[in-house]
Amino acid sequence: MTIHVLKNALLIDGTGSKPIERGVVAVEYEKIIYAGELEDWRIPEGKDAQELDLSGRTILPGLIDCHVHIAAECLPDSTMAGPWGWTTLVMLKHAQNTLAAGVTSIRDVGGRHHLEFSLRKAAELGLFAAPRMSLAGKLLSITTTGTEWYDGMYREADGVDEVRRAAREQLKAGADLIKVLATGAVLSPGEKPGAATFEMEEIRAAVTEAAKVGKIVAAHAHGIEGIRNAVSAGAKTIEHGTYLNQDPRLMEHMAKEEIFLVPTLKAGYDVIYGDRPGIPAWIMEKSKDTQEDALRSIGEAYGMGVPIAMGTDAATPYNFHGENAMELYYMSQAGMTSMDCIVASTKNAARALGWDSKLGTLEAGKLADLIVVKTNPLDDLRSLADRKNIEYVMQGGKFVARQFSEPDGIPEELMAGAWICCGL
Question: Which fold has domain 3-61+358-421?
Answer without folding.
Answer: Urease, subunit C; domain 1 (2.30.40)
